[in-house]
Amino acid sequence: MPSEKVEIFGSFRTGLYLPSSDIDMVIFGEWKSIPLNTLSQALENNGISKRDIIVISNATVPIIRLLHSPSSIRVDISFNMDNGVKSAKLIKKLIKEHPSLPKLVLVLKQFLVHRDLNEVYNGGMSSYCLTLLIVSFLQGHHRPKCDPSVNLGTLLLEFFEHYGINFNYEKVSIHFQEDCLYKPRFRKGNFLSVEDPLVEGHDVAKGTYLMHLLKRSFQNSFHMLSKVVHESACSQIPVKSFLHLILKVDPDVMKQRELTLNNHSKIMKTLSRLMGQSDRIFSEGTAAKKKKIR
């Protein structure tokens, strides 16, 4: 039996994806070297246009990036990296524990996207780090438990207050052991520090060097929303939503959303085909090697 296995991870697996999100896949197997070119050629042979395939071999985590042209959805394929799969399983567990988590994550992910602070390689914050930030906030939230759909606005406002004003970035690190939420920082500096609950000593916020901009955005959003909520309460004029004050959705995102909805069945078929192709490609490779040995 072939040992290769293909799995989906990231926001597509957890359900916490935006219209602009990528799909992340990982292939597990045993090779002398990562078969980037083998898979790239096989994908091309199976109908994926060469111009839609990019092999990124010099990155810390080598990947193949391909584009699904009908939907403009990008797919990243990595090899033998199990941390993404483990993280996705953890997040799905946390979603069960915190019913308000998915909606807060989606709103705050778009909040970061709108401010170009959602990419770690640009100093922004990863989705995984953001999710852990929200979980830490919810774990320390001492309001009586009630219907999360009724209190999402309050939770969002208090999240902004917590990380925009109250949180002491210089002295504490976010921690996920049962006996405490925070502990003294394990790296120097005044940036955010979040210990990975899956890897002891790993700081998932290490690359977020623009945390000062994020903090300022959280702070400004808290003051802005607090002001308009107070004014609305005083005027007694009902308002459906204040989110437009802090969130802007680019027309291209709405176009992408519509495209994704219209092509959902095609996307799922393509994804299934890609996973099947990857399995078949490496299964055939394994069989050929065994035959050659015999």
UniProtKB/TrEMBL annotation:
Q: Which UniProt keywords apply?
A: Magnesium, Metal-binding, Transferase
Q: Which residues form the Poly(A) RNA polymerase mitochondrial-like central palm domain?
A: 2-92
| GO BP, sorted A to Z | polyadenylation-dependent ncRNA catabolic process; RNA 3'-end processing
List the Pfam families: MTPAP-like_central (PF22600), PAP_assoc (PF03828)
What EC number(s) does its UniProt record assign? 2.7.7.19
Q: What class of enzyme is it?
A: transferase
What cofactor does its activity depend on?
Answer: Mn(2+)
Q: Which residues form the PAP-associated domain?
A: 151-199
* Key word Metal-binding present: yes
GO terms for molecular function, please?
Answer: metal ion binding; mRNA binding; poly(A) RNA polymerase activity
Per the record, its GO cellular-component terms are:
nucleolus; TRAMP complex
Which family is it part of?
Answer: Belongs to the DNA polymerase type-B-like family.
Q: What is this protein called?
A: polynucleotide adenylyltransferase
Species annotation: Nephila pilipes
Q: What is the lineage of its organism?
A: Eukaryota, Metazoa, Ecdysozoa, Arthropoda, Chelicerata
